[in-house]
Specification:
The strands form two sheets. Strands 2, 4, 5, 6, 9, 10 and 11 form a seven-stranded mixed sheet that branches. By secondary structure, the chain is mainly beta. The model has no long low-confidence stretch (mean pLDDT about 95). The N and C termini lie far apart (about 40 Å).
Length: about 130
């Protein structure tokens, strides 16, 4: 059974860094669109960064461009989100997911949360002094 498990979250001061990991089990991490989403308390889940190795396309939310980097290690079957210069507004639970529509390119704005599946349990990121 294919599963995704997120880890790497924690409490960090503004300006700090974290690297989130999404480990795939029960199968290979798909080469189609996969991504990271964030859900803050009382808010809807939103796309943060997505990628596709089919055509090497990527997407990053404007608010994280230049600070967050999505990457993957196929040998380890893992997806990463490296987060630098963290801000209070980055606080939330971070989830990784697989786009359930088989397209080669990352959709505009990465796609909607309901178009993704195989969500893990999430990992909490809290940015606070």
């Amino acid at each position: 059974q294919f599963q995704l498990t997120e880890s790497g979250g924690g409490l960090v001061q503004p300006g700090g860094s974290l690297k989130l990991t999404c480990a795939a089990s029960g199968g290979a991490l798909p080469s189609y669109v996969i991504g990271w989403f964030r859900q803050a308390p009382g808010k809807e889940r939103e796309a943060i960064a997505c990628m596709s190795t089919r055509d090497r396309s990527t997407y990053s939310r404007d608010s994280v461009k230049g600070r967050f980097t999505i990457s993957r290690d196929n040998a380890k079957n893992m997806l990463y989100l490296e987060m630098n210069n963290l801000k209070a507004e980055d606080t939330g639970t971070y989830y990784c997911g697989v786009y359930t529509i088989l397209v080669n390119s990352v959709p505009q704005d990465c796609g909607r949360p309901y178009e993704f599946g195989f969500w893990g349990q999430g990992t909490q990121v809290t940015v606070s002094s």
